[in-house]
Amino acid sequence: MENKKSTGLKSFSRNFWVVIIMEFFERGSYYGVMSVLSVYLVLSVAEGGLGFSKESVGVINSVTRPLLYLLPILSGAIADRYGYKKTLMFAFIIMSIGYFLTSLASAYALVFLSLLFMTLGAGFFKPVISGTIARNTDEKNSSLGFGIYYWSINLGAFIFPLILVPYLKSISWSLIFVMAAIGTGWLIFLNLFAYKEPDKPETSKKVIDALKGILLVLKDFRFIIMIVIYSGFWILYFQMFDTVLWYLKDYMDMTPVNNLVNSFLGLFINNPNWKFDAEHVTVINALTIIVLQLFVSNIVKNKKALPTMIAGITMGTIGMGMLAISTYAWVFMAGIIIFSIGEMTAHPKFISYIGLIAPEDKKALYLGYSFLYGVIGSGIGGILGASLYVHFVDNLKAPSILWLIFSAIGVATIIGLMLYNKYLAPKKV
Q1: Residue 342: closest CA among 249, 252, 421, 414
Q2: Residue 361: pLDDT over 80
Q3: How far apart are CA 322 and CA 305, in angstroms?
Q4: pLDDT at 2
Q5: pLDDT band at residue 362, thresholds of 50, 70 and 90?
Q6: Rounded to whole angstroms, how far apart are CA atoms 51 and 62?
Q7: Are residues 188 and 215 in the same domain?
Q8: Is residue 4 assigned to a domain?
Q9: Fewer CB atoms near the end CB (10 Å): N or C, the chain?
Q10: Cα gap 196→198, rounded to integer Å
């Protein structure tokens, strides 16, 4: 009985479940907004959007998203120093204000500033949740604990865009941001009344130490080359929130998908009128991961990290390449699903690989800075995607070239990893 309790669901503390709820609502709010943000910002004012140019939206995305990956390096040290509860309070207040201000703003500078507020809050939130889970689990239940954590992320990314976003935008697009403000704002009270400050580590990392850490990892050329190569795949990933959504709105006829879903819904309700729209790209990605992650993880669990990453990125590249060959609805759906399978194959192995190649006494430091892949991928992906879309799709009416260019970036990433595996990778991993 004792062994069962130490590894099952009952082994987790109340604090663990509190942060899982926080993660679900925060990620649900975030992905609810991100599933349609790039569409809302470029949609004409007459259609309920803000009418910004795609290039200007690319700039917003290339500034806010890298910050989301960069901030946790510093905010993790701040949380260790000043307490998790205080850091969460700051994160939820700033985040909910950011979302709410975005719902009111229509001028480009104000929207940009409001989204920076949201990003600042989200960047402070991220490391506290994983840090709390790490401190509330042990070697017996850590794997299950982080598994539940990743499921809660994808469950939020699935439910909010599927159920809340379509309903709210049918009334007013701005209500999506109000929803996110409420979704993160109520967590202030959960933090106040339910969250318990974990025991402080014996040696709390100072903020200056976090900054010094970057000098340490920058000296490791093998680590930096891996990050730069791997970030190529994330240039592709971030298109799922920008160019793929614009392409869906401009080019895709999703009638075959709509007909199938409505014929199924017709078994339960009269005259259903469901339509596949921008937010459902995020839904498909999250659902694929929810359904298949355990299955995929089981297949690759004993496989070497780098070849598995290469296989995953190859699948992701094929998924994006499929968008170039046809505008048929089911080809589009297959492309998104195959890309998602590639993502869930490659990314856990990347995290595992960084843990394996990091020096024994610096694993946490290396894993912290491994998020630089997101800084590079999103920083390049936003502006590059918007510029290429305007040139090849809006001006030349040649969307296939756009997807072939991104597929070529995927191929370059695969070749880079193959060369890395041959010439730079430690032989033991």
Answers
A1: 414
A2: no
A3: 26
A4: 41
A5: confident
A6: 19
A7: no
A8: no
A9: N
A10: 6
pTM (2 decimals)?
A: 0.94
The yes-or-no verdict on residue 364 having pLDDT over 80 is: no
pLDDT band at 333 (very low <50, low <70, confident <90, very high): very high
Tell me which residue range forms the domain holding 64. 9-200
Residue 230, phi then psi, degrees to nearest 5: -65, -30
Together in a domain, 99 and 227:
no
List pLDDT tens digits, range 153-176: 999 999 999 999 999 999 999 999
- Containing H/E element for 165? helix 165-171
CA 80 to CA 199: how far, in whole Å? 10
pLDDT of the residue at 5: 47
Question: What is d(CA 55, CA 395) in angstroms, rounded to the nearest whole number?
Answer: 13
pLDDT for the residue numbered 136: 85
DSSP secondary structure string, 92-156? HHHHHHHHHHHHH--SHHHHHHHHHHHHHHHHHHHHHHHHHHHHT--TTTHHHHHHHHHHHHHHH
What pLDDT does 4 receive? 43
Q: Is residue 2 part of a domain?
A: no
Q: What gap in Å lies between CA 153 and CA 287, rounded to an integer?
A: 11
Q: Which helix (H) or strand (E) holds 371?
A: none
Report whether 192 contacts 63 (CB < 8 A).
no
Answer yes or no: do 53 and 67 share one domain. yes
**Which token pair is 92?**
């939820």
- Burial label for 34, CB within 10 Å (0-12, 13-18, 19+), is buried
Report CA-CA distances (Å) from 72 to 60, 67, 237.
19, 9, 20
SS3 content of the chain, % helix, strand, coil (to 5): 80, 0, 20
Q: Which two tokens stand for residue 344?
A: 């869930």
What total of structural domains would you count in the chain?
2
Q: Are residues 116 and 64 in contact, defined by beta-carbon separation less than 8 angstroms?
A: yes
Determine what percent of the chain is predicted with pLDDT higher than 70. Answer: 96
Q: How far is CA 155 from CA 27, 77, 88, 96, 201, in A?
A: 9, 28, 21, 20, 31
